């Protein structure tokens, strides 16, 4: 009898194994690192440097290093704020276009070591690394390839210098969950950046980092800085013949991705909480409202992209109070909105029907993207009385798709139907709120 039970149990295991192994994949697939990155969904951008004190957004590179002088720098406050706001990581502009390094770099003479801040012994990158380690919080880094200060910029030699700069940061302060590359450069006569060399410098030291740029390879710019991914948003992109910056695909393509793109390169939505990326004393009134932030949430995370929200430290080196309060209001509003799932199911293919007992306002879909992005179109219907009524529809799903109903739906059942797909679709979950 024991043997029969054992054989039955083993048979069940075998069936599960066969089912798992026979799942059909389609197109390019995400790596394990890209899947983990997608689950982060929301993290903080910190633009900080000489621009914080000059009022410029793109520094000229000729600023006196002494202009950088935060009086109360507290990177732990940044991390605590981000964590309490529900963010899953933080990315620092370690070097912006002005070339000023927030760490004492051996590749530059325009760094914190040349400033009067902490008698030239300060290191912002290290302080943030220590704070992230203390709070077990993922850290990423932005290092601009454009350098308006370095004398070698604009020569072939600079590619080697910049690769060394990347290696220095990743080796001394990494590993990082994301490397953010801006495609900006000093003009048409500048030699091409050696992107393969730069990527190697990242991966040699942060092997699990997701590299951001216009064309990835880990994730892509969404084509605007307003907070909106395309309502159709593919995690696929063709990169052959393209490069970050002036050689990037069109903003329309970046916004929507490509259904037949050869590479898995999901979108990331970058947007500042104020009008500017760097703190200025004149942009207090531009702090985004709670309604604006909620709209951005549904238009970024709710359209299958990650959201990196810029919350810039001020001249003290602290997240401003008003910005922190707004972040907590944003967190509370999201928590309240999604506090009470009315119904949910998992592991469906083309159709899911959920029973509901209260009026619903939103539906959240997730696709099992580890097998590829397959869903091209879907509908949402509500059973009101004896009649099914369409209340929403969409194209792509991807990692997550959120659809708000135009008005509360008082129905006994909600039905989701995948109406078009490249291959057998797999809905990871469907949840009604």
Q: What fraction, in percent, of the residue positions are helical?
A: 25-40%
What characteristic shape results from the CA principal axes? Answer: globular
Mean pLDDT: 93
- Unreliable runs, pLDDT <50, ≥5 residues? 1-22
Proportion in β-strands = 15-25%
Q: SSE order, as H and E?
A: HHEHHEHEHEHEEEHEEHEHEEEEEEEE
Q: Which structural class matches the secondary elements?
A: alpha/beta
What is the first-to-last residue Cα distance?
A: 47 Å
Strand order of the largest sheet: 1-2-3-4-5-6-9-10
Q: Could you describe the largest sheet, including whether it forms a barrel? A: 8 strands, parallel, barrel
Total number of strands: 18
State the helix count.
10
How much is the radius of gyration in Å? 24 Å
Question: What key phrases describe this protein's structure?
Answer:
disordered N terminus; alpha/beta; eight-stranded parallel beta barrel; 10 helices; 18 strands; 433 residues; globular; four-stranded antiparallel beta sheet
């Amino acid at each position: 009898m024991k043997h029969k039970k054992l054989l039955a149990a083993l048979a069940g295991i075998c069936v599960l194994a066969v089912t798992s192994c026979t799942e059909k994949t389609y197109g390019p697939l995400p790596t394990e690192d890209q899947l983990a990155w997608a689950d982060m969904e929301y993290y903080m951008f910190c633009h900080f440097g000489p621009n914080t004190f000059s009022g410029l957004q793109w520094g000229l590179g000729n600023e006196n290093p002494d202009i950088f002088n935060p009086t109360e720098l507290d990177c732990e406050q940044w991390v605590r704020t981000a964590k309490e706001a529900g963010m899953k990581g933080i990315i620092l502009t370690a070097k912006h276009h002005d070339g000023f390094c927030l760490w004492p770099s051996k590749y530059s003479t325009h760094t914190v070591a040349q400033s009067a801040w902490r008698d030239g012994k300060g290191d912002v990158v290290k302080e943030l690394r220590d704070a992230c380690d203390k709070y077990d919080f993922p850290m990423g880094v932005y290092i601009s390839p454009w350098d308006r200060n370095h004398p070698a910029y604009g020569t072939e030699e600079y590619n080697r210098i910049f690769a060394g700069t990347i290696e220095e940061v990743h080796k001394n302060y990494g590993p990082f969950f994301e490397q953010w590359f801006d495609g900006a450069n000093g003009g048409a006569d500048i030699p091409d950046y050696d992107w393969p060399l730069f990527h190697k410098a990242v991966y040699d030291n942060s092997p699990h980092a997701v590299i951001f740029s216009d064309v990835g390879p880990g994730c892509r710019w969404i084509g605007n800085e307003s907070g909106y991914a395309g309502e159709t948003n593919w995690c696929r992109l063709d990169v052959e013949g393209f490069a970050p910056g002036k050689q990037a695909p069109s903003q329309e393509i970046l916004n929507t991705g490509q259904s037949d793109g050869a590479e898995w390169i999901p979108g990331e939505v970058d947007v500042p909480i104020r009008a500017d990326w760097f703190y200025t004393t004149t942009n207090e009134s531009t702090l985004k409202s709670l309604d604006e932030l909620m709209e951005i949430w549904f238009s970024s995370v709710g359209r299958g992209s990650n959201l990196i929200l810029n919350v810039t430290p001020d001249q003290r080196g602290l997240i401003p109070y008003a910005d922190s309060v707004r972040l907590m209001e944003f967190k509370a509003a999201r928590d309240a909105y999604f506090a009470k799932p009315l119904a949910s199911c998992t592991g469906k293919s083309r159709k899911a029907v959920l029973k509901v007992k209260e009026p619903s306002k939103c539906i959240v879909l997730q696709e099992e993207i580890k097998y590829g992005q397959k869903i091209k179109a879907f509908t949402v219907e509500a059973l009101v009385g004896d009649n099914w009524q369409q209340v929403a529809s969409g194209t792509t799903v991807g990692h997550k798709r959120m659809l708000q109903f135009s008005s509360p739906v008082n129905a006994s059942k909600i039905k989701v139907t995948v109406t078009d797909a490249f291959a057998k679709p797999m809905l990871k979950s469907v949840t009604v709120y």
